[in-house]
Amino acid sequence: MKKILAVLFLILCCTKIAAAAEPELNYTSFGLLPVLHEGRVKPLDSFARIMLREFSGRDAVRGHGAAEWLAEVLFDPVSAAETPVFEITNPAVREHFDLKLKKTLFSFSELAPGLAAHAAETQGLRDANPDNLTAQQQTTLRLYDDVAIYSELLRSFSAVLPLGIDAPPAYGTGKTENAYVDFRASESKIQNDAAKLVRKKGADTAKYTDDEKKLASLAFALQEIRTAGVNNGTLKIINKNGQWISPWQSLLQNGDLKNWQDMAIAYRSGNAEGWRAAANAVRGKTPFKIYLEKAYNITAPFPLAMGFYLLGIIILAAELYRKSNRMLFPLLCLGFGLALHVTGLASRIIILSRPPVGTLYESLLFVSLICAATALALYLRRKNLVALFAGQGAAAFLLFLAPFLLQRGESMEMLVAVLNTSFWLGTHVLCITAGYAVCILAAMFAHAWFILRLKNAPARQLHLLYDSIYKTTLAALLLTGIGTILGGIWADQSWGRFWGWDPKENGALLIVLWLIWIQHGRIAARLNRMAFLAAVAFLNVIVALAWFGVNLLGIGLHSYGFITGIALALGFFCAGETILIATLWKLNAEKTRHALA
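The structure corresponding to this sequence follows.
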């Protein structure tokens, strides 16, 4: 809570010189400034988006984008302290801190009094077992953490912002507005002179002359601002020695913040040309990855790809309803969707310098791509319209589901050391996730077979679809089997054992055993055609349990995939699929009995 009080002091010091940026300022160069965050260098635009989503769950506040919002936080903390940015949806938490119950976004200034009043009792929650905390207590702790991070951002560049305090003539800098950096060289003398003044006249400022009051105020302000800023580490910039450190650390190591100070002055005065020039001076020669990540943020390729997949399904359904053979527009939609999808994944590979399958979210992106690409390949080779529907439908659904797995929004986080290996990510993980995709396609084909048979589809069409299902399940068995073996080899190299009955390992084995069982059942005539197809359709449930369900256990070495909050959705999906498959199986069995009667 000392951090919050320190920031409040900083804001009070700056109230006389609060300024608002002009809307004409261009934030392109500002968004391209490189910063170090979460273990990798990224554009300031990405950092701003991550921070804003963390606090507010939004991509913009008050109609301002993330980069514009961050510029206000860094260079005009007075205004930023009044900007509603903290989202509190829990009414009990809002009531606990005496906040208005009819809104969900609150500013730093609105939260600070309540947080300070309850700081002691909240500190006790940190010593408790996290599993025993209520939802209200967990939200409260997260709110304190978010406010602490926000307070660090507010004072990141306090060293270059105007103090709003008149300096005595003996210590004047000749500037109309003075910042901490302007007194950096004379700070020791100012503090020593202030200490001598206190020893001579005491702490009662009524005994001081006007210049002595200014000296005492200046010494106190410099000390408080330095104390509040010196331990900041949320925002890290590169200094002249190539080190990634906070602005305050850079200054204390005799770094040069002049360009940043020029940027702050230009921002506060609304000087568009000065703002652009200062941002370009700080940016220097921008690496290609910075440009690429900024473009990735702006284009958002995966939602666009999902849109094209859905549009392709709609157009394809309309063409079939009209009994038209024109496939140009459905294929164009699929092609555009695939192009965006591939571009997005390729961008992530370049930015992160690793295969794009290191997290649960990334696996969804990759599996959905395999579904769409396989659908296109099957259509071009065998004119399989069912594949177009199934592949695009699965891809669109998985892309729709993916954002819900991002608890903090898209951040392209770095992996833990044991997982951050391009060879195994590019072999085991790609192989096993490709197996997931083929399993999903096989299950979708099986659903389609049941539905088409109920619609009295031609026998030849059903036979060709059954043949595709049989071959697809063999491909799924090959991919998941090899992927599981490769995973065991990776585990042996990383953890010293090939197999440890880890939940994720058991999930992979479950898929392999299910595929082996249904193939043996078909070959041995223990499963008739419809039973075999029902078992293939049930692959959706098996894959869902192996892919997501094992993460709900919260145990095992594969901690990169642990997520919370999906148990209910997974339960509904598995129950719904089970009921749907059982219903389709029963209806088709009744159709067979009627045909034989």
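Strands lie at 34-37, 40-43, 60-61, 64-65, 86-87, 105-106, 237-238, 244-245.
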